[in-house]
Amino acid sequence: MRWKxxxxxxxxxxxxxLLLYCELLLLQCSSCGGxxxxxxxxxxxxxxxxxxxxxxxxxxxxxxxxxxxxVLLCLLLPAFESVRTASGYWTFEGRPVPGPGTVLLAQLSSxxxxxxxDMELTRDVLxxxxxGSVLGMLxxxxxxxxYLKELGGLALVSLGSSLFTGLRGGTFMWILARLNxxxxxxxxxxxxxxxxxxxxxxxxxxxxxxxxSDVDAxxxxxxxxxxxxxxxxxxxxxxxxxxxxxxxxxxxLVVVEMRLQIVLQSRYNEYRKxxxxxxxxCEAEINRLASQTLGNIRVVRSCxxxxxxxxxxxxxxxxxxxxxxxxxxxSPVFLLxxxxxxxxxxxxxxxxxxxxxxxTPTGTxxxxxxxxxxxxxxxxxxxxxxxxSAPDRHVLQSLSMELxxxxxxxxxxxxxxxxxxxxxLLKRLYEPQGGQVLLDGExxxxxxxxxxxxxxxxxPQNPQLFSGSVGSNxxxxxxxxxxxMMEEAAARASASGFIESLEQKYDTEVGECGVRLGxxxxxxxxxxxxxxxxxxxxxxxxxxxxxxxxxxxxVAQKVLVQGVTLLVVAHQLKTVEQADHxxxxxxxxxxxxxTHQELMERRGRYQRSYQGAFP
Length: 615
Ligand SMILES: Nc1ncnc2c1ncn2[C@@H]1O[C@H](COP(=O)(O)OP(=O)(O)OP(=O)(O)O)[C@@H](O)[C@H]1O
Description:
The protein has helices at 4-26, 34-57, 64-86, 100-138, 144-192, 196-201, 204-246, 248-295, 297-302, 306-358, 419-426, 449-455, 470-474, 483-492, 496-501, 519-531, 549-561, 596-602, 605-613; strands at residues 378-386, 394-403, 408-412, 434-439, 442-443, 456-459, 537-541, 565-569, 581-586, 589-594. It is α/β, with parallel strands linked by helices. The protein folds into three domains: 4-233, no CATH class; 247-357; 378-613, P-loop containing nucleotide triphosphate hydrolases (Rossmann fold, 3-Layer(aba) Sandwich), CATH 3.40.50.300. Strands 6-7-8-3-9-10 form a six-stranded mixed beta sheet, with helices on both faces. Strands 2-1-4-5 form a four-stranded antiparallel beta sheet, with helices on one face. Helix 17 links the parallel strand 7 and strand 8. The protein is extended. Adenosine-5'-triphosphate is lined by residues 387, 389-390, 395, 413, 415-421. Residues 124-330 form the ABC transmembrane type-1 domain. InterPro entries: AAA+_ATPase, ABC1_TM_dom, ABC1_TM_sf, ABC_transporter-like_ATP-bd, P-loop_NTPase, Type_1_exporter. Belongs to the ABC transporter superfamily. ABCB family. MHC peptide exporter (TC 3.A.1.209) subfamily.
């Protein structure tokens, strides 16, 4: 959270209070106008601060937390004084103006309320989120650094939540006590004013009970329900916002399910109520018939109405049986419909999940080429490419370039020029929309997937190491990697010197994400990891940025000696001077290419960039 706007708001508030005091002093006013004046001043402050924000920040609206803070700061004091006046605890009207202590208290309360408000509101949403992240880490999906952050977040939110729950409970208990006191006092005064015959009609015991137990019970009900209402409303609103943010489709399904369940349940409740009334009517009828007939048995006998009465009794019993049978059918049908609805919604939710499982990748599938020997010549032919997330924006435009086999080619140019996009296409992370990328004259997609990734290896700028030994990181993913292979790769990556200097050499632990190694050493290990696979093309995407210039040069030479094609993507032009071929890219197109000497003599963009970098 950026704290500067909050400090400015606090200073602004203090300044406006000072102005009010000065103005009252100058105008020789003894009061700021009671409660209406206080409210007017609060609203003025609110408007003023929003206007000031617009002046300094243009159309950009203040964030919700900052806005809440401003509202609290401006309206907390008038609201507090209004509640105090309404509860009869204090009459503000008689006081001239809130003192500096009250203003300071209002500011502190606003800060605390704003912070705790967010904690309380987000507790039920954030706790499950942090718990999920911590569980994710325990299942190995997160690194330790993330784990500590998530665990810290969980602890903080839980602590804040407990604190706020305690404060909220305490505040409501305090309000309850005040409410009871006030109502009892009013009731007692009212009782004392009643006529004497009122006391003759109402026993003192019952009046005393009204005064104590009933008032207590009423206060408890009102306060508890207010508490529950405020809490539930805010909680539902926030949960809805959070779930909408996570997935509006799933939220819609859940809301639809809830709505249908409510409709179904209320229909069923109506029906049950109706049936219950019918059963009660029937029971009453049965009782009436039985008691009427048995109570007047002499009349029944004398009229020979036994058969008639028995038929009547049977009729009511049959009616009762029908009602109960209908109830017996409706209950399981209702449960079935409810369960079907719930299962149906879950099936729909799963269908969103399964659609991902069934999704077929749009890229061209890999072919079966896996030649024994590979030269490592790479050609980009009229390649046009746009990222799937921005299909209308072509980041490469009919780009053509050649990377000679066994040579060092450097791609340079300003940020956003399209260098990394070329590398991504070369690794088949994306497919171009137009043109082709060829390896030894064959399109990349005609090679076997595993073969291609073994022969064309990428070392990224920030390589990830895994907890384990230096050796296991070099041999990562290889089944039959011998110590000899590791040592050879490390030597070519100029990493053997530092590895040999470690106490346990290749068995030295690198720590979580390689934290025990410096950035330069991490890059050396990552290059060794690439080299141990004996690739024919190595792409160093800013992969030597943390290395000393001499080491960078040595690594390049050792790689080239083996006849490997080396593609270096670099920002620092100094590091690519030695390259056999330099390609200068900008705006997704090749602007200039040649050796360092040729490009410097051309006095174009490369030369200007070089001179800009080394004036
Ligand atoms: N995943 C992506 N989705 C959409 N656009 C992207 C994506 N990655 C990069 N771009 C855009 O593609 C353009 C080329 O980016 P690219 O990373 O290839 O340039 P770059 O020369 O490698 O830059 P840098 O040196 O800063 O890495 C940029 O405008 C960038 O914003």
